[in-house]
Amino acid sequence: MSGKTIIEKILSEHSGADARAGDRVWADLDLAVVRDFGGPNVVLEYEKQLGDKPVWDPQKIAMTFDYQAPAKVVLVANNQRACRQFAVKHGVPHVFDVNAGIGQHVLLEHGMVLPGGVIIGTDSHMNLLGAVGSFSTGMGTTDVAAGWATGRLWFRVPETIKITFKGEYDYPASAKDLTLFLLSKIDKSKTIYKSLEFYGQPIDSLSLAGRLTLASMVTEMEGKIGFITPNQSILDWIGERAGRSVEAVLPDEDAAYKEEWEFDVSGLEPLIACPDNPDNVKPVREVAGTRVDEVFIGSCTNGRFEDLKVAAEVLQGMGGKVAPHVRLVVTPATTEVAMEAVEAGLYETFIKAGAMVTNQGCSLCTIGHHGVLAEGDVLVSTGNRNFRGKLGKGSQAYLAGPAVAAATAVKGEISLPE
Amino acid sequence: MSKEFVFRGRAWVVGDDIDTDMIYHGSYLPLTDPKEMAKHALEYVPGMEDFVERVQPGDILVTGKNFGCGSSREHAVITLQYNDVAAVIAESFSRIFYRNAVNLGFPILEVPDITEEVETGDELEIDANTGRIRNVTKGIEVRGTSLSGLEKEIMTAGGLFGYLKAELQAEE
User: Fold this and answer.
1) ipTM of the complex
2) From B72, B103, B149, residue closest to A123, measured CB to CB
3) Distance of alpha carbon A169 from alpha carbon B37, whole angstroms
4) Residue ranges matching CATH 3.30.499.10 in chain A
5) How many CB pairs under 8 A join A and B?
6) Which of A3, A333, B5, B16 could share a disulfide with A105, CB 3.0–4.6 Å?
7) Residues 6+ apart with CB under 8 A from A188
8) Which of A79, A122, A149 lies closest to B72 in CB terms?
9) Which CATH number fits domain A273-411: 3.30.499.10, 3.40.50.1000, 3.40.50.450, 3.40.50.10320?
10) Of A24, A79, A142, which has the smallest distance from its Cβ to B104's Cβ?
11) Measured between CB atoms, does A164 come within 8 Å of chain B?
């Protein structure tokens, strides 16, 4: 019998079974999370199915309100209230309310995400926590409600594709460009349902923010999870927050991979995903000059401090002013990120440039937020999806890294940073 | 839903990469009543804007690759279920949509190249147990993946809560 991949190891550990690709296993959950989207549906489903039955473990349930934070329609306010009331009733202590920021990032900062853990949540980008070697995955209402009741769920153990990068690239190319590069190269019919493991020097040298960027878009690659093995400094960062020492889960040397791919990212240039699909990727220079109406810098893909810092530096370096016809929305991922950005003076740069800096949260990754698009509007976003009409019927969206987004805001048309 | 997973119905054919915003747009996410969710099925799929007015109980949705990509929203399954769509046949499903459908006992079948064999309005006969699909209108038969294993057990129980019923009651 061959050795195990990371996902096989994690699911074996959590199921007590010898979990192999293709098997169905029932695995114990370390954390089951809802947002203000999905959360109310989970609460209703739980109560419909189980009435007043106590949840499996209140400590292993979390709520993160980031979809519409704070609520702007009464329906959402009611939904958030229903979640809070459920939390009180069941003694759930971990409620990260509308002032906290993007759920996964908040959980990570609070030491609630450990390498090798199993986490589910009502967010299709839960799997960005693969950035620290956690098996986290998005699920629907029924799954999470059942998870709250039983503490375990069924999983089909995915096959794994080993992806190794080589080569070096320089600014202005970033982790986002490496991610878009990969999206443009892969055949989604091969990555669908798969676990991806990322290796190579270009991955090792990524910061935590860069790792989160790559892991977050595994969803758009149709993968189930993308694992990046945490290095010592990331393990220390998590350990300090978790209040215990943590270790990475490594695959066996003779692990059986479905496929092994290698990509050379030497000389990577800034890329952009064009409407209406994240894999419709082109070099920025090919679409430079396209007029835009709005730019969004933030999201679970590019909402960390270093993303905002790069954007602020580009704004400053290119004259410090957003083009008069462009609306620039900047959203820090979390409270911690917001504080860092304030202390570093980034807010001043953004506000003086004419940007609107919003409170922490998912912001313009959903239509739930202020800043939605008019028919005919063109957006450049640092988010992860540009599906047709996502932020408004008849609008178009491009996806790029923070440097390109900031340069575009200054020029009023898709531009490379200068 | 037929517990035997055998259906006959009229096909609606749509293309590849139908994402969850097309199936059920993000602007309706705050809704929690399935009957309200049902009013917005496929509203953002080009050419299907009036689907909810034209769909008949028992109709079958036939789609290309990667159906249901995007969000984890279970609304995307519920909106079809509450329009009495009998099943979705796709060339492939996005992961979360597939899982949500299983957990809600909503029949789904994977059939390669199915959109080449079926046109909107064709009468289809499906046996999900065997993966056999007969296009009655065109007189052809194709085969896809059959329901099996744990997924079939969950679907036969009417969904995840039906499947877990015995366990949840035993705990009390």
Assistant:
1) 0.89
2) B72
3) 47
4) 18-156, 273-411
5) 114
6) A333
7) A221, A222, A279, B65, B66
8) A122
9) 3.30.499.10
10) A142
11) no
Provide the shortest C-alpha distance from residue B32 to chain A (in Å): 6
| Range 86-105 of A in CB contact (< 8 A) with B | none
8 Å CB contact between A390 and B73? no
Identify from B29, B93, B94, B163 which residue to disrupt to test chain A contact, counting A C-beta atoms within 10 A and taking the largest count. B29
Give the predicted TM-score (pTM) of the model: 0.94
Class of domain A18-156: alpha beta
Q: What are the DSSP E strand ranges found in A159-246?
A: 160-166, 195-199, 225-228
Task: Give A193's contacts in chain B (Cβ within 8 Å).
Answer: 95
Distance set, CA B151 to CA A155, A275, A315, A379, B108 (Å): 10, 35, 52, 40, 10
* CA-based nearest residue in chain B for residue A34: B72
Task: Kindly give the confidence (pLDDT) of every residue in chain A, 418 residues in length, as a single tens digit, with 9 standing for 90 and above.
Answer: 899 999 999 999 999 999 999 999 999 999 999 999 899 999 999 999 999 999 999 999 999 999 999 999 999 999 999 999 999 999 999 999 999 999 999 999 999 999 999 999 999 999 999 999 999 999 999 999 999 999 999 999 999 999 999 999 999 999 999 999 999 999 998 999 999 999 999 999 999 999 999 999 999 999 999 999 999 999 999 999 999 999 999 999 999 999 999 999 999 999 999 999 999 999 999 999 999 999 999 999 999 999 999 999 999 999 999 999 999 999 999 999 999 999 999 999 999 999 999 999 999 998 888 999 999 999 999 999 999 888 999 999 999 999 999 999 999 999 999 9
Residues of chain A with CATH 3.40.1060.10: 160-264
What is the spatial distance between Cα A258 and Cα A3, in angstroms, rounded to a whole number?
Answer: 13
Instruction: Give the end-to-end CA distance of chain A in Å, rounded to a whole number.
Output: 54
B75 CB neighbours in chain A (<8 A) are: 41
Cβ <8 Å between B100 and A53: no
- Homologous superfamily, domain A160-264: Aconitase, Domain 2 (3.40.1060.10)
Q: What angle do CA A148, A103, A271 make, to 5 degrees?
A: 130
